[in-house]
Write a structure and sequence with these properties.
This protein is of the alpha+beta class and 78 residues long. It has a single domain (4-75), classed as 2-Layer Sandwich (Histidine-containing Protein, Chain: A), CATH 3.30.1340. The chain is 33% helix and 22% strand. The chain is built from three helices and four strands; from the N terminus they run E-H-E-E-H-E-H. A four-stranded antiparallel sheet has the order 1-4-2-3, with no helix packed on it. A hairpin with a 2-residue loop joins strand 2 (28-32) and strand 3. The radius of gyration is 11 Å and the shape is globular. It starts with a strand and ends in a 7-residue tail after the last helix.
């Protein structure tokens, strides 16, 4: 799956994001520059500067990766 960029607007967005990505069996990572955390970990995400755009990447199959991107469209950076 390709990386795609997201932007959180607050802690509620982080909670919803973790809920969505946790429903997938695949590994999902969140990047800020070269810093990477497990996207299923609220504690890991809170160590990042969530005010800046972040990159999401996973090892999902193509169909599942598209579904994940669609579910996170509300966070996508335009």
């Amino acid at each position: 799956m390709e990386k795609f960029q997201i932007q959180f607007n607050g802690l509620e967005d982080v909670h919803k994001f973790v809920h969505v990505v946790s429903s997938y069996d695949a590994d999902v990572d969140l990047y800020c520059g070269s810093y990477c955390v497990d996207a299923k970990s609220i504690m890991g995400i809170m160590t990042m500067d969530i005010r800046n755009p972040l990159w999401v990447s996973s090892n999902c199959e193509a169909v599942e990766g598209k579904k994940l991107m669609d579910e996170l469209e509300w966070l996508a950076v335009a």
